[in-house]
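Predict fold of DUF2500 domain-containing protein; 121 aa.
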Amino acid sequence: MMVETQGDFLFSIGPIFIGAVFILVFGVIIFTIIQGIGTWSKNNQSPRVNTNAKVVTKRTSVRGGGETRARSIYFVTFELDSGDRLELQVDGQEYGQLVEGDHGDLNFQGTRYLGFTRRAN
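Predicted 3D structure, encoded as tokens:
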């Protein structure tokens, strides 16, 4: 009868652990891609909406940093005439031009921001 040593155990469980981590990472990547395609498709099927809105608030989310390049993602919350609020992702230039309290015409399709035309009060 042969006694299994600690080293033998690590060599037998190591490849299984590495394989499981690889499958997990690959699964997360595939899930993210499928989710992105689903959102893109849903936005394409949604009607384009042009409505009166007010810029309520703005926020940023920073991803990365440290050993990787930091990336800022910009969001603006609009309040529609119905009282509903809608947060949309915008690019940096739009983010810089929109001011809280602005009134105007919001153009969007699903969760896709298409533009905002400011109106004089």
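The first strand starts at residue 48 and ends at 63.
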